[in-house]
Amino acid sequence: MSTVAYITARGLFGRRRALLLLPLPVLLIGLALLCRGYDVNPSDWATPVLVGLGLAVMLPVTALIVGTGVLGSEVDDGTIVHILTKPLPRRDIILPKLAVAVVVTAVTSAVPLFIGGMLASSARLGLGLAVGAAVGACAYSALFLLLSLLTRRPVLVGLVYILVWEGLLGRWVSGTKVLSIEQYVITIADRIAPHVLATRVSLPVAVVMAAVFVIGSTVFAVDRLRSFRMAGETS
């Protein structure tokens, strides 16, 4: 498993795709520093920057870039064939790749959110945002890795989920909130730093559904990889 994880990490950071991870975290920290430097009231900028940019855009987009990249490119260019020839259980391929995606997404998102939370309010808010981002990294990464095995357009499908389901329906249609990873992240962050963020689902729902996304997507991804033939097609 460690070999697969090493190869995955090396391949991920060896592509230009890794450069796409930098602009949003830099933008978030820059905006937070700018607002703090000009003494803008945190109540005026914390939610738009930390939630609107950080949790609603930076976290899922980072997970989308990384989650679809750890395996999707190998499916597209056919190198998945070489992986499938190895005498490895399919879970020993999926799990290390998922672990790499989770770690990279969590670090890339949690660090700027922690800094932004500290600048806006306190270390407690920063910690809440960082923990929420880590949970979100697990759920988003598992979902987007699965999408890379289900469709040849995982980025497009992922963007539809982020922009339409979470960004539009998840905010205005009450029944869709229970299937919104963004809402789980906000709820978990608010539990650590109460009365700062507006939550729309309960903590038990957030925890259980986040686990469902992680476990369900991972199990489905392992099963999906088993269906790949040597030519890279599914049976």
Can you give a write-up of this model?
The structure is a single chain. With 235 residues, this protein is an all-alpha fold. The protein is built from ten helices and no strands. The longest helix is centred in the middle third of the chain and has 30 residues. GO terms for molecular function: ABC-type transporter activity. Keywords: Membrane, Transmembrane, Transmembrane helix.
Reading the helices and strands in chain order gives HHHHHHHHHH
Low-confidence stretches: none
Mean pLDDT: 88
For the termini, the CA-CA separation is: 25 Å
- Shape descriptor reads globular
Secondary structure: number of strands? 0
In what range is the share of β-strand residues? under 5%
Major β-sheet profile: none
> In percent, how helical is the residue content?
over 70%
Structural class: mainly alpha
Tally of contiguous helical segments? 10
Q: Please state the CA-atom Rg, rounded to the nearest Å.
A: 18 Å
